[in-house]
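Anyone else keep sequences and structure tokens together like this?

Example one:
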Amino acid sequence: AALWALAGPAFVSPPPAARAEDAPRFDQVAQAAVLGAALAAPDAAHAANQGYAVLQLGWAVFIIGLGPAVLFWIYFNKPE
């Protein structure tokens, strides 16, 4: 407990918040350009993911289908 008292406060206060008039302002042309780009292609980040999802589903069906296929092959090809 004595060490805790000697260590002092463990947390420091945050820096003072910036005032609204100190914040940088973008001009309206730049704001319009960014907004237009964001609205023009909303799914650009996901453009390549649809085919990949179909590929994953195809491989999942193939891998899961291998189990019963192997069991049937073993069952029907047992040596008598």
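And example two:
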Amino acid sequence: LASLPGVNAFGDRALLGLLKSFAGINRAKSVKLWERDYRVGGGVGAFSVGMSFGMHAGWAVEGAVGSSYKIDATYLSPTVNMAS
């Protein structure tokens, strides 16, 4: 994979985007307010905001999965499953 042109730069940009996303969420005052909100945590402080990322190289199918109450964007493929 490393022999493909542009792969190293692509990986560097993906890592930089991940770090910027984490920093933005941890700095956001509105997110911190939600974490401290009594109503969201059910009075026990059980609510927290979190993210996870996985990087893969290969094919994937993107789509929406869920119900009428909750919909998640997801990617399906063997390489995505191994990355997670």
